[in-house]
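FAQ

Q: What does a record look like?
A: Structure on top, sequence underneath. For example:
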């Protein structure tokens, strides 16, 4: 049996992704703390704007995600020139989408904020933050596309090292420009916008340099406006657009759930926000393995090694389940003390503690959903994941959360229970779909004539 390229082993792919995600989570928390020193209004504007940016990010991630899967598949099947063309097209189109978004946010910040019902007293701050951070979204699009493509070539260490350097710089620049340290001006929230865009630009430059040397034949700048093949790009869209819908489902279901929590009251909203921060540390390792196995399965699937691809999903699932369950149990034991780092309000603490036991149920469901959902994405079964996400997130995560949490006054516990039910519903559906091996069987059937031709010289 042909051995797997060492850079496509599960551990080699997963640990750099974990370090990158861990650092982003930790530094994101520090970032929020620094912005909170400006004012509560500044935190509100940043939180509001980031939800908007996350929703718009799905537009260019549709292309980047689809291209990433195809790059790994093409490298697995040793069609590296196709992989190279797909990668170039992904960067070009993602950047073009990012430029359109940037122009829209830079010129229409206030109308967008009003359309989303941001309060009048926050509009002056939102004008500046949405205009300038949103105006740099094309850099975010380039960074996201470059990082996705580079990871799917098997190089997860490069984006990790870039992420470490840029995120550390971001913290230093934020501190300096918010508070006027190191001889720099004290710009408050405006300093955050400068820091964001400087770091995005540097990240883009570093990843672009790395991208130029990611394939056997060096990529030239002129190829970004000369390379386009309709058939290959059609394949990117075929895989990518359901991924985009899936990401949009998640973003908008979270927005809806947070709006329900706001109806319940500020304490419920705060408790869920704090728990969300703690939970992110629970599933990071699991998320890293889920993303790593997507890259690995796409590579194996492209190479026609379907049996290995099938088993890889379960291997990642079992490892991930062990990790997230252990982390959730540690959080259950230490959660009350950790919640105390955020707040001393007894009502919020009581609500948060009541969610710790439910988190023991939530995390395995998330892992089941992430691992097998990503496995299906890796072989191109993205429409199935889109369909189950639309149904489950729409009916269970959003619909039932409102019905049981608000209409029947079940409150935060009921909403959390609906979130658990949504994760398990999608995870179980993905389990049966993966066990059915539909796409793997199709690949095996397609391989038989090719083997016969090679054997008999037909």
């Amino acid at each position: 049996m042909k051995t797997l390229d060492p850079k496509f082993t599960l551990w080699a792919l997963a640990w750099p992704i974990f370090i990158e995600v861990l650092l982003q989570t930790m530094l994101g928390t520090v970032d929020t703390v620094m912005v909170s020193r400006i004012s509560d209004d500044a935190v509100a504007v940043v939180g509001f704007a980031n939800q908007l940016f996350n929703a718009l990010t799905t537009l260019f991630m549709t292309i980047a995600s689809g291209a990433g899967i195809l790059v790994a598949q093409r490298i697995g099947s040793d069609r590296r020139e196709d992989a190279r063309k797909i990668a170039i097209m992904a960067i070009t189109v993602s950047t073009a989408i990012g430029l359109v978004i940037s122009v829209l946010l830079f010129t229409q910040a206030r109308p967008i904020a009003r359309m989303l019902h941001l309060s009048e007293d926050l509009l002056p701050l939102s004008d500046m933050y949405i205009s300038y951070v949103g105006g740099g979204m094309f850099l975010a699009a380039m960074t996201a596309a470059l990082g996705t493509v580079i990871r799917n070539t098997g190089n997860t260490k490069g984006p990790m090292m870039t992420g470490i350097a840029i995120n550390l710089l971001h913290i230093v620049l934020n501190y300096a420009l918010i508070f006027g340290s190191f001889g720099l001006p004290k710009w408050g929230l405006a300093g955050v916008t400068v820091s964001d865009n400087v770091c995005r630009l540097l990240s883009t430059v570093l990843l672009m340099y790395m991208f130029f040397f990611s394939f056997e034949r060096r990529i030239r700048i002129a190829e970004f406006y000369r390379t386009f093949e309709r058939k290959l790009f059609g394949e990117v869209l075929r895989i990518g657009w359901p991924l985009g819908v899936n990401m949009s489902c998640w973003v908008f279901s979270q927005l809806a759930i947070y709006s329900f929590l706001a109806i319940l009251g500020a304490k419920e909203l705060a408790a869920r926000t704090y728990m969300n921060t703690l939970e992110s540390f629970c599933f990071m390792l699991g998320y890293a393995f889920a993303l790593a196995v997507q890259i690995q399965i796409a590579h194996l699937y492209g190479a026609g090694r379907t049996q290995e691809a099938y088993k890889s999903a379960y291997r990642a699932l079992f490892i991930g389940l062990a990790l997230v369950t252990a982390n959730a149990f540690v959080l259950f034991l230490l959660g009350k003390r950790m919640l105390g780092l955020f707040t001393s309000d007894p009502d919020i603490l009581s609500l948060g503690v009541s969610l710790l036991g439910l988190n023991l149920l939530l995390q395995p469901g998330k892992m089941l959903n992430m691992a097998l959902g990503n496995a299906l994405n890796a072989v191109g079964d993205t429409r199935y994941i889109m369909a189950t996400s639309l149904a489950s997130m729409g009916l269970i995560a959003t619909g039932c959360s409102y019905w049981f949490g608000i209409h029947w006054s079940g409150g935060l516990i009921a909403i959390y229970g609906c979130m658990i039910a949504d994760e398990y519903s999608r995870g179980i559906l993905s389990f049966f779909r993966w066990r059915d091996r539909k796409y793997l069987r199709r690949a095996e059937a397609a391989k038989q004539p090719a083997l016969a031709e090679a054997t008999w010289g037909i």
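Q: Is there anything notable about this one?
A: Residues 1-228 form one domain.
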